[in-house]
Amino acid sequence: MVRYRHYRDGIYELICEATLESDPTITMIVYKASNGTIWTRPASVFFELVAQEGIKVPRFAPI
User: Domain of life, per the record (predicted)?
Assistant: First the structure.
């Protein structure tokens, strides 16, 4: 189990990678919140850097 902390807080568990049906070139990340909600984002968004108080940080950082 790989867990990540969202830059705004919250712990999420990476479930798997998936291929987007409508565009097989896009890899999706399927992940679960601590309350059990399942989410998905493109891998490029999940692993991107975002600005927080003027500093670039990972959107999701492994813990």
Answer: Bacteria
Q: How far is CA 18 from the centre of its chain?
A: 13
Buried b (16+ CB within 10 A) or exposed e, 14-47: beeeeeeeeeeeeebbebbeeeeeeeeeeeeebe
5-37 pLDDT tens trace: 999 999 999 999 999 999 999 999 999 999 999
The pTM assigned to this predicted structure is 0.90
Tell me the residue range of the domain where 45 lies: 2-62
- Closest Cα to residue 47, out of 1, 2, 16, 6? 6
